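for the recovery benchmark. tokens below, seq after
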């Protein structure tokens, strides 16, 4: 196992983040002045949804896809966002403009059911309207992780059935993933590999998971995990460029025997996995399929697809 933990969210420290301005319910204030009530539904109950976005060279790739997912989640949760897509988009750009940001920025857009009259569960106690917060930070992914790779440890905590909490919801309730990550870190790994309710390989605590076998890319069916925007873009890239790709059930037997493995997410894009449960994958280096997909993804971003 690795001695020094790495993460798909590793980034170099940036002193500019000490003085960023944050959007809170229509006001843009210094980070030290940003406040949310202790009665807020998100703080009390994890009753909220969020999206992670990236700013590249003055553009926010796949913004429409992220807003689609946000509004779909809000509809399911009966959470009134209180703003149109256009108004949310303007709030994001206003936040970026106030910070003078043009590239290499991570944006976290959060919406909760808002402040409650009493600190209890019932949604009808949220009578003050939603809380909307936008945090934009200077944050460039640490590309050295491509050489170091990520190690994974398979945990007993799985991504559950939609009958409990649908994993497709990008909600503020992340305890299942945090518990899984804690177990993985205790085992000496960087992230947790999580199975679905039937024992098939599913996702990690933070990212979507892919393997490569004999030049073919495999990922889970997507039934029990967050269907990440980057996940879908990788699938699209494979389909458009003659790389065989399968959304299917597969087990740890298939995973341990993979030629390559990698993770996908908005922040890190694609990150190679070098070790799973103490087994070295792909000789401990990023493979040719990974490098090809990563290059094609960068080109997609550059074109503004």
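predicted aa per position
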């Amino acid at each position: 196992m690795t001695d020094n933990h790495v993460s798909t969210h590793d980034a170099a420290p940036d002193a500019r983040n000490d003085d960023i301005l944050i959007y809170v319910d229509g006001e843009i204030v210094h980070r030290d002045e940003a406040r949310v009530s202790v009665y807020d539904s998100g703080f009390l109950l994890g009753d909220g949804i969020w999206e992670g976005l990236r700013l590249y060279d003055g553009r926010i790739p796949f913004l429409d896809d992220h807003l689609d997912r946000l509004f779909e989640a809000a509809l399911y949760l009966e959470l009134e966002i209180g703003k149109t897509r256009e108004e949310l988009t303007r709030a994001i750009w206003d936040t970026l403009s106030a910070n003078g940001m043009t590239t290499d920025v991570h944006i976290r857009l959060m919406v909760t059911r808002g402040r409650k009259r009493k600190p209890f569960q019932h949604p009808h106690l949220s009578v003050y309207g939603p809380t909307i917060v936008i945090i934009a930070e200077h944050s460039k992914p640490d590309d050295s992780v491509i050489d170091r790779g990520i190690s994974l440890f398979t945990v007993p905590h799985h991504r559950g059935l939609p009958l409990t909490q649908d994993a497709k919801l990008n909600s503020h309730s992340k305890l299942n993933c945090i518990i899984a990550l804690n177990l993985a870190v205790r085992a000496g790994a960087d992230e947790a590999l999580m199975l679905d309710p039937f024992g098939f390989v599913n996702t990690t605590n933070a990212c979507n998971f892919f393997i490569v076998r004999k030049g073919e890319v495999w990922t889970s069916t997507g039934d029990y995990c967050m269907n990440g925007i980057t996940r879908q873009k990788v699938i699209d890239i494979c389909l458009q460029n003659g790389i065989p790709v399968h959304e299917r059930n597969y087990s740890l037997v298939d995973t341990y025997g993979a030629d390559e493995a990698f993770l996908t997410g908005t922040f890190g894009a694609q990150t190679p996995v070098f070790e799973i449960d103490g087994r070295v994958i792909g000789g401990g280096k990023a493979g040719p399929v990974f490098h090809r997909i990563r290059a094609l993804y960068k080109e997609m971003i550059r074109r503004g697809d």
